[in-house]
Design brief:
Helix 3 crosses helix 4 and helix 4 crosses helix 6. This protein has a six-stranded mixed sheet, with helices on both faces. A four-stranded antiparallel sheet has the order 2-1-4-5, with helices on one face. It is built from twelve helices and ten strands. It has a domain of 44 residues.
Protein backbone atom coordinates (compact mmCIF):
# COMPACT_ATOMS: atom_id res chain seq x y z
CA UNK A 1 0.00 0.00 0.00
CA UNK A 2 2.27 2.79 -1.22
CA UNK A 3 1.90 6.43 -0.20
CA UNK A 4 2.88 8.97 -2.85
CA UNK A 5 3.38 12.63 -2.05
CA UNK A 6 3.74 14.81 -5.13
CA UNK A 7 4.77 18.47 -4.99
CA UNK A 8 2.83 18.95 -1.75
CA UNK A 9 2.47 22.53 -0.54
CA UNK A 10 0.39 23.70 2.41
CA UNK A 11 -0.11 27.32 3.41
CA UNK A 12 -1.89 28.31 6.60
CA UNK A 13 -4.14 31.41 6.54
CA UNK A 14 -3.35 32.41 2.94
CA UNK A 15 -3.95 36.00 2.00
CA UNK A 16 -3.72 37.23 5.59
CA UNK A 17 -0.90 38.94 7.52
CA UNK A 18 -0.41 35.57 9.27
CA UNK A 19 0.16 33.57 6.08
CA UNK A 20 2.71 30.80 6.61
CA UNK A 21 3.93 28.11 4.26
CA UNK A 22 4.33 24.94 6.33
CA UNK A 23 5.13 22.62 3.41
CA UNK A 24 6.90 23.75 0.26
CA UNK A 25 6.90 21.42 -2.79
CA UNK A 26 7.48 18.18 -0.87
CA UNK A 27 7.68 14.91 -2.83
CA UNK A 28 8.46 11.32 -1.83
CA UNK A 29 7.06 7.78 -1.98
CA UNK A 30 6.84 5.29 0.88
CA UNK A 31 6.62 1.65 -0.19
CA UNK A 32 5.06 -1.33 1.52
CA UNK A 33 6.90 -2.60 4.58
CA UNK A 34 9.23 0.37 5.09
CA UNK A 35 10.12 1.83 8.50
CA UNK A 36 10.64 5.53 7.86
CA UNK A 37 11.80 8.16 10.33
CA UNK A 38 10.63 11.77 9.94
CA UNK A 39 12.84 14.30 11.70
CA UNK A 40 13.26 18.06 11.80
CA UNK A 41 13.36 20.92 14.26
CA UNK A 42 10.17 22.32 15.78
CA UNK A 43 8.20 24.16 13.10
CA UNK A 44 9.89 22.40 10.19
CA UNK A 45 6.61 20.98 8.84
CA UNK A 46 6.58 17.42 10.25
CA UNK A 47 3.18 17.56 11.94
CA UNK A 48 1.56 19.29 8.98
CA UNK A 49 2.99 16.61 6.70
CA UNK A 50 1.69 13.61 8.62
CA UNK A 51 -1.79 15.14 8.89
CA UNK A 52 -1.94 15.15 5.09
CA UNK A 53 -1.18 11.43 4.92
CA UNK A 54 -4.58 10.39 6.30
CA UNK A 55 -6.64 13.33 5.13
CA UNK A 56 -6.77 15.49 8.26
CA UNK A 57 -5.48 18.36 6.13
CA UNK A 58 -5.92 19.04 2.42
CA UNK A 59 -3.08 20.36 0.25
CA UNK A 60 -2.95 23.95 -0.89
CA UNK A 61 -1.41 22.39 -4.00
CA UNK A 62 0.06 19.05 -4.93
CA UNK A 63 -1.23 15.54 -4.30
CA UNK A 64 -1.26 12.79 -1.69
CA UNK A 65 -2.12 9.35 -3.07
CA UNK A 66 -2.74 6.49 -0.64
CA UNK A 67 -3.14 3.02 -2.12
CA UNK A 68 -4.33 4.59 -5.37
CA UNK A 69 -6.74 7.01 -3.66
CA UNK A 70 -6.01 10.65 -4.46
CA UNK A 71 -7.01 12.53 -1.31
CA UNK A 72 -7.57 15.76 -3.23
CA UNK A 73 -10.21 14.32 -5.52
CA UNK A 74 -13.89 14.89 -4.83
CA UNK A 75 -15.78 11.87 -3.59
CA UNK A 76 -12.80 10.12 -2.02
CA UNK A 77 -13.87 8.48 1.23
CA UNK A 78 -11.73 9.81 4.05
CA UNK A 79 -12.93 6.91 6.18
CA UNK A 80 -11.46 4.53 3.61
CA UNK A 81 -8.19 6.47 3.76
CA UNK A 82 -8.10 6.33 7.55
CA UNK A 83 -8.69 2.59 7.50
CA UNK A 84 -5.50 2.36 5.45
CA UNK A 85 -3.40 4.91 7.36
CA UNK A 86 -3.59 5.01 11.15
CA UNK A 87 -2.27 8.05 13.02
CA UNK A 88 -1.18 7.94 16.66
CA UNK A 89 -0.74 11.47 17.99
CA UNK A 90 1.79 12.53 20.61
CA UNK A 91 0.65 11.57 24.14
CA UNK A 92 -2.25 9.46 22.80
CA UNK A 93 -3.05 8.22 26.31
CA UNK A 94 -4.69 11.59 26.97
CA UNK A 95 -7.35 10.61 24.41
CA UNK A 96 -8.52 7.49 26.30
CA UNK A 97 -12.05 7.93 27.56
CA UNK A 98 -14.01 4.65 27.78
CA UNK A 99 -14.81 2.84 31.02
CA UNK A 100 -12.69 -0.21 30.20
CA UNK A 101 -9.55 -0.92 28.23
CA UNK A 102 -11.29 -3.22 25.77
CA UNK A 103 -14.12 -0.75 25.19
CA UNK A 104 -11.61 1.95 24.33
CA UNK A 105 -9.87 -0.27 21.79
CA UNK A 106 -13.24 -1.26 20.29
CA UNK A 107 -14.20 2.37 19.65
CA UNK A 108 -12.43 2.67 16.27
CA UNK A 109 -13.77 -0.59 14.79
CA UNK A 110 -17.29 0.36 15.93
CA UNK A 111 -17.01 3.55 13.91
CA UNK A 112 -16.30 1.36 10.88
CA UNK A 113 -19.74 -0.16 11.31
CA UNK A 114 -18.49 -3.62 12.31
CA UNK A 115 -20.49 -6.01 14.47
CA UNK A 116 -19.97 -6.16 18.22
CA UNK A 117 -18.35 -9.59 17.88
CA UNK A 118 -15.94 -8.40 15.18
CA UNK A 119 -15.06 -5.28 17.19
CA UNK A 120 -14.33 -7.41 20.24
CA UNK A 121 -12.20 -9.83 18.22
CA UNK A 122 -10.20 -6.99 16.69
CA UNK A 123 -9.70 -5.36 20.10
CA UNK A 124 -8.43 -8.57 21.66
CA UNK A 125 -6.08 -9.17 18.72
CA UNK A 126 -4.73 -5.60 18.90
CA UNK A 127 -4.21 -5.80 22.67
CA UNK A 128 -2.23 -8.98 22.09
CA UNK A 129 -0.14 -7.19 19.46
CA UNK A 130 0.88 -4.53 21.98
CA UNK A 131 1.70 -7.07 24.67
CA UNK A 132 -1.40 -6.62 26.85
CA UNK A 133 -2.63 -10.22 26.81
CA UNK A 134 -4.02 -10.41 30.35
CA UNK A 135 -7.82 -10.62 29.92
CA UNK A 136 -8.33 -9.34 33.47
CA UNK A 137 -6.57 -6.12 32.49
CA UNK A 138 -8.97 -5.59 29.57
CA UNK A 139 -11.88 -5.00 31.93
CA UNK A 140 -10.03 -2.43 34.01
CA UNK A 141 -10.35 1.30 33.59
CA UNK A 142 -7.54 2.55 31.33
CA UNK A 143 -6.85 5.22 33.95
CA UNK A 144 -5.66 2.54 36.38
CA UNK A 145 -2.76 1.61 34.09
CA UNK A 146 0.83 2.84 34.02
CA UNK A 147 1.86 5.51 31.51
CA UNK A 148 3.47 2.94 29.22
CA UNK A 149 0.43 0.66 29.38
CA UNK A 150 -1.92 3.54 28.58
CA UNK A 151 0.13 4.35 25.52
CA UNK A 152 -0.02 0.71 24.42
CA UNK A 153 -3.81 0.79 24.77
CA UNK A 154 -3.98 3.94 22.63
CA UNK A 155 -1.81 2.32 19.96
CA UNK A 156 -3.96 -0.81 20.10
CA UNK A 157 -7.01 1.35 19.40
CA UNK A 158 -5.47 2.37 16.08
CA UNK A 159 -4.15 -1.13 15.28
CA UNK A 160 -7.67 -2.53 15.78
CA UNK A 161 -8.67 -0.67 12.60
CA UNK A 162 -6.04 -2.77 10.77
CA UNK A 163 -4.22 0.01 8.90
CA UNK A 164 -1.57 -0.95 6.37
CA UNK A 165 0.47 2.06 7.46
CA UNK A 166 0.86 3.31 11.01
CA UNK A 167 2.15 6.84 11.75
CA UNK A 168 3.42 7.55 15.27
CA UNK A 169 4.15 11.10 16.43
CA UNK A 170 6.88 11.07 19.11
CA UNK A 171 5.84 7.63 20.41
CA UNK A 172 8.38 7.56 23.26
CA UNK A 173 7.90 11.17 24.45
CA UNK A 174 7.54 11.55 28.20
CA UNK A 175 8.21 7.91 29.05
CA UNK A 176 10.80 6.65 31.53
CA UNK A 177 13.68 4.50 30.15
CA UNK A 178 11.78 1.25 30.72
CA UNK A 179 8.63 2.54 29.03
CA UNK A 180 10.72 3.93 26.18
CA UNK A 181 12.38 0.57 25.57
CA UNK A 182 9.01 -1.19 25.69
CA UNK A 183 7.50 1.11 23.06
CA UNK A 184 10.58 0.78 20.84
CA UNK A 185 10.33 -3.00 21.10
CA UNK A 186 6.64 -2.79 20.28
CA UNK A 187 7.34 -0.77 17.14
CA UNK A 188 9.88 -3.37 16.00
CA UNK A 189 7.29 -6.12 16.49
CA UNK A 190 4.56 -4.22 14.63
CA UNK A 191 6.92 -3.58 11.73
CA UNK A 192 8.08 -7.20 11.69
CA UNK A 193 4.43 -8.28 11.42
CA UNK A 194 4.18 -6.45 8.09
CA UNK A 195 2.90 -2.97 8.92
CA UNK A 196 4.53 0.03 7.26
CA UNK A 197 5.68 2.47 9.94
CA UNK A 198 6.35 6.20 9.84
CA UNK A 199 7.81 7.58 13.06
CA UNK A 200 8.11 11.28 13.85
CA UNK A 201 10.78 11.84 16.46
CA UNK A 202 13.20 14.31 17.98
CA UNK A 203 15.27 11.40 19.31
CA UNK A 204 18.15 10.72 16.97
CA UNK A 205 18.90 7.58 19.00
CA UNK A 206 15.42 6.14 18.41
CA UNK A 207 15.51 6.96 14.71
CA UNK A 208 19.02 5.59 14.23
CA UNK A 209 18.15 2.30 15.96
CA UNK A 210 14.80 1.62 14.32
CA UNK A 211 14.44 3.20 10.89
CA UNK A 212 15.67 1.98 7.55
CA UNK A 213 15.14 5.36 5.90
CA UNK A 214 14.99 8.92 7.16
CA UNK A 215 13.24 12.03 5.82
CA UNK A 216 14.67 15.32 7.09
CA UNK A 217 12.47 18.42 7.07
CA UNK A 218 13.91 21.93 7.28
CA UNK A 219 11.94 25.15 6.88
CA UNK A 220 9.00 23.46 5.16
CA UNK A 221 11.18 21.58 2.66
CA UNK A 222 12.28 17.96 2.47
CA UNK A 223 16.06 18.37 2.45
CA UNK A 224 17.30 14.79 2.89
CA UNK A 225 15.75 11.43 1.99
CA UNK A 226 18.24 8.64 2.54
CA UNK A 227 19.33 5.65 4.61
CA UNK A 228 20.43 6.47 8.20
CA UNK A 229 24.11 5.88 7.47
CA UNK A 230 24.02 8.49 4.69
CA UNK A 231 21.94 10.94 6.71
CA UNK A 232 24.17 10.92 9.79
CA UNK A 233 27.35 10.98 7.72
CA UNK A 234 26.27 14.41 6.45
CA UNK A 235 26.82 16.33 9.70
CA UNK A 236 26.76 19.73 8.00
CA UNK A 237 23.23 19.32 6.62
CA UNK A 238 22.01 17.79 9.87
CA UNK A 239 23.27 20.85 11.76
CA UNK A 240 21.74 23.17 9.16
CA UNK A 241 18.40 21.50 9.88
CA UNK A 242 18.73 22.41 13.56
CA UNK A 243 19.37 18.81 14.60
CA UNK A 244 22.13 16.92 16.36
CA UNK A 245 23.79 13.63 15.54
CA UNK A 246 23.02 10.50 17.56
CA UNK A 247 25.30 10.28 20.64
CA UNK A 248 27.27 7.38 19.17
CA UNK A 249 27.87 9.33 15.97
CA UNK A 250 29.16 12.23 18.10
CA UNK A 251 31.50 9.81 19.87
CA UNK A 252 32.74 8.50 16.54
CA UNK A 253 33.38 12.05 15.35
CA UNK A 254 35.38 12.84 18.49
CA UNK A 255 37.45 9.67 18.06
CA UNK A 256 38.26 10.64 14.46
CA UNK A 257 39.19 14.16 15.57
CA UNK A 258 41.53 12.65 18.18
CA UNK A 259 43.32 10.69 15.46
CA UNK A 260 41.63 7.34 16.01
CA UNK A 261 41.70 5.96 12.46
CA UNK A 262 39.33 3.44 11.04
CA UNK A 263 36.04 4.89 12.34
CA UNK A 264 33.87 5.42 9.23
CA UNK A 265 31.40 8.29 9.00
CA UNK A 266 28.69 5.69 8.44
CA UNK A 267 29.13 4.45 12.04
CA UNK A 268 26.28 5.99 14.04
CA UNK A 269 24.85 3.34 16.40
CA UNK A 270 26.32 1.64 19.45
CA UNK A 271 26.79 -1.55 17.45
CA UNK A 272 28.43 0.00 14.40
CA UNK A 273 30.76 2.22 16.44
CA UNK A 274 31.77 -0.69 18.70
CA UNK A 275 32.53 -2.87 15.70
CA UNK A 276 34.58 -0.10 14.08
CA UNK A 277 36.62 0.44 17.25
CA UNK A 278 37.27 -3.27 17.72
CA UNK A 279 38.13 -3.71 14.04
CA UNK A 280 40.60 -0.82 14.31
CA UNK A 281 42.14 -2.51 17.35
CA UNK A 282 42.44 -5.75 15.38
CA UNK A 283 39.97 -7.68 17.54
CA UNK A 284 37.33 -8.22 14.87
CA UNK A 285 33.71 -9.25 15.12
CA UNK A 286 34.31 -12.02 17.63
CA UNK A 287 34.91 -9.44 20.35
CA UNK A 288 31.42 -8.00 19.75
CA UNK A 289 29.70 -11.23 20.74
Amino acid sequence: MPIEVRNLTHTYMPGTPFEKTALDDVSFTIGDGEFVGLIGHTGSGKSTLIMHLNGLLKPTSGEVIVDGLNLAEKGVSLRAVRERVGLVFQYPEYQLFEETVVADVMFGPKNLGLSEAECRARAEEALGQVGLRDAALWEKSPFELSGGQKRRVAIAGVLAMKPGTLILDEPTAGLDPRGRDEIMGLMKDIHAAGTTLIMVSHSMTDVSRLCGRILVMNRAKLTIDAAPAQVFADEKRIREAGLTLPPCAVLAEKLRAAGFEGIPREAYTQETVARAILAALGKGDAACK
